[in-house]
Write a structure and sequence with these properties.
7 strands; alpha/beta; 240 residues; 7-stranded mixed sheet; Rossmann fold
Amino acid sequence: MSGDDGYLGDELAALSLAMNYYRWVAEAFRPWVHGDGVEIGAGIGTFAALLQDRLATLELVEPSTHLIPPLTARFAHAPQVRILHTDLEGYLQQRPAASLDAIILVNVLEHVEQDEAMVRALVQTLRPGGSLLLFVPALPWLYNGVDRRYGHHRRYVKKALVALAEESGLIVRQCRYVDLMGVLPWWLMRFRGDGPIFMPGMVRLYDRWFIPLTRWIEGFFSPPLGKSLLLIATRPDAGA
């Protein structure tokens, strides 16, 4: 997550209409969010707005110059929120060790070329008992032109994501595939042409009808695959 200062975030307005989708992820994270936290790659703040009430302080890290004004305006009346115009590397250079209780990355880690080194660096900023909360694209065989267009280096599988967290010294509390019904639409995107990828009408339709249904289904069992992966992991307590 560096070198994308010119990122316009054109798709974020359309994706912000998927509030059922964002709430689904946020509600999985909420029990693990407390104290001092950061969201890396905050965009226009759609996800942060759902969790800010859980935190004493919240830093929103965003490298894109174009997204800082709407992000700043959105949280102008939230004194516990601090907007930081920097990339992930720059943020880690100024963040003291063991100073955070929650680190949130939603569709960000796939943009980081050296993801293993980055996760290890993030873990060092967590206090004992603090949480790393990840949401990433899943299934390498779904990788297509849309992933390339948005600078994704990879899509993940559950086993590899768990290993990445554990090898960084974390205890994995939960790792599961999410959005089983989204697998087919994403696979079909490989056959589309140029033009807008996330159209507001289609996002609204999918979020209104398909997300509640797939969330209900996945409430009964953990699917063997899904369009995304959700991981919750904690840094061991000092005495563990």
